[in-house]
């Protein structure tokens, strides 16, 4: 291993450590802020209303965009995830939506593998 490659790996490793530390700090600050909001009933109600409005609006936008080309269903699932941070019913619905999305991805991967295998078999057939 030459020194240039080793230096790049060291830089990536350092960046990864710094990123993880920043993520932990941000997560800790977010949890502390949320706990402070929960202690104040008025602030808690305002916060939950805001999450409901933004999350609900995102879900509605995603549902409207589903028939159009693009990531409409992903936007709807993202809005549901926002709602799930504060509402138990949305958390259950989000878990079901995520399971359905994972199942859909698995089916799509399986179909793609079948198509590729069929194409490879067709390409390997002898030409007369």
Please tell me about this protein's structure.
The chain has 128 residues and is mainly alpha-helical. 88% of the residues lie in helices and 0% in strands. The protein is built from four helices and no strands. The protein has helices spanning 3-39, 41-65, 72-84, 88-124. Helix 2 (41-65) packs antiparallel against helix 3 (72-84) and helix 3 (72-84) runs antiparallel to helix 4 (88-124). The N and C termini lie far apart (50 Å).
Which features characterize this protein?
flat, mainly alpha, 128 residues
Taking pLDDT < 50 over at least 5 consecutive residues as the criterion, the unreliable ranges are none
Oligomer: single chain
Shape: flat
Which class of secondary structure composition applies to the elements?
A: mainly alpha
Question: What is the average per-residue confidence, as pLDDT, rounded to a whole number?
Answer: 86
> Radius of gyration in whole Å, from Cα?
23 Å
Summarize the structure.
The chain is an all-alpha fold and 128 residues long. Helix content is 88%, strand content 0%. It contains 4 helices and no strands.
Layout: helices, strands, pairs:
Layout: H1 3-39, H2 41-65, H3 72-84, H4 88-124
Helix pairs in contact: 2-3, 3-4
